[in-house]
């Protein structure tokens, strides 16, 4: 199977493969005299992590051939100043996707700014209308990490239709939307959280287990059904400075069908899904 080493499914390899496919598609548009897809990213201030994320996204866009315009705004910009930039992107026909990098400085109202993004360009899937469409089962831009997780499960060769899926974590950005996407694909889904009783008993029934908890290596083999597809969303920093997930990968490995490693698992697929959404927006506009 592609993108794997043994039972480890590398999101990094999958994202490279999907980016190569998108690159070919963009080259096709260019060859036919069409404009290329464009993503506008809006960054307020100079938060080092945000600057690093923006650089990562820009590099990924360059690989695929998506134009990436960065609107780097001063940290003290007013709410109106920020929203004027968003509206300008909304009205620019050359712009297919808008990404507002979080977090915003404290004096700005992030929810109100997100609300201003044109739902047809909301490639991060954060506007209330997109969220509503997701839960209504209507066409929408799904948030990037959940979308990346679905691509990973497909690459694992996981039969989602009819599967028993358990998602540990119910956050707005990961747990809940991934549960919704799995349900759309006809899985029978249980969402667990910090108040769930007998968690092990529930996860042991899962053909698909998504761990989005934020507790280092909490999921060991005692939580796993033999042959399960396991996606480890967690990114936790250990005392020795290394990253680890919510799953004890080594411990579960003999029991799973496949599992994603941390790092190089879900993380790279999140950016890839942003590009996938931008391409989708472009196709909907250019036809
Ligand atoms: P949140 O903190 O928003 O949510 C964590 C969820 O886990 C909550 O629903 C919480 O329950 C639940 N939870 C916490 N402890 C337990 C427990 N002991 N047993 C069962 N459930 C528990 O985190 P996120 O969803 O934003 O992120 C989860 C992890 O994924 C983090 O490590 C984060 O860094 C990582 N992440 C990775 C991304 C990537 O691209 N790879 C992207 C986004 C996040 P309750 O609701 O009751 O509090």
Structure write-up:
This protein has ten helices and twelve strands. The protein has helices at 11-31, 48-64, 79-91, 110-115, 128-136, 144-155, 175-184, 199-203, 249-252, 266-286; strands spanning 4-5, 8-9, 38-44, 67-73, 97-100, 164-168, 188-192, 208-211, 229-232, 236-237, 243-244, 258-259. It has a five-stranded parallel β-sheet. A three-stranded parallel β-sheet has the order 4-3-5, with helices on both faces. Helix 1 runs parallel beside helix 10 (266-286), helix 6 packs across helix 7 (175-184) and helix 6 (144-155) packs across helix 10. The model has no long low-confidence stretch (mean pLDDT 97). NADPH dihydro-nicotinamide-adenine-dinucleotide phosphate binds next to helix 10. This is Bifunctional protein FolD. One of its GO terms (cellular component) is cytosol. Belongs to the tetrahydrofolate dehydrogenase/cyclohydrolase family. One of its GO terms (biological process) is methionine biosynthetic process.
Describe the SSE topology.
Blueprint lengths: L3 E2 L2 E2 L1 H21 L6 E7 L3 H17 L2 E7 L5 H13 L5 E4 L9 H6 L12 H9 L7 H12 L8 E5 L6 H10 L3 E5 L6 H5 L4 E4 L17 E4 L3 E2 L5 E2 L4 H4 L5 E2 L6 H21 L1
Parallel strand pairs: 3-4, 3-5, 6-7, 6-8, 8-9, 9-12
Antiparallel strand pairs: 1-2, 10-11
In brief:
By secondary structure, this protein is an alpha/beta fold. It is 41% helix and 16% strand.
Key structural traits:
single chain; 10 helices; five-stranded parallel β-sheet; alpha/beta; THF_DH/CycHdrlase_cat_dom; three-stranded parallel β-sheet; binds NADPH dihydro-nicotinamide-adenine-dinucleotide phosphate; Bifunctional protein FolD; one-carbon metabolism; 287 residues; amino-acid biosynthesis
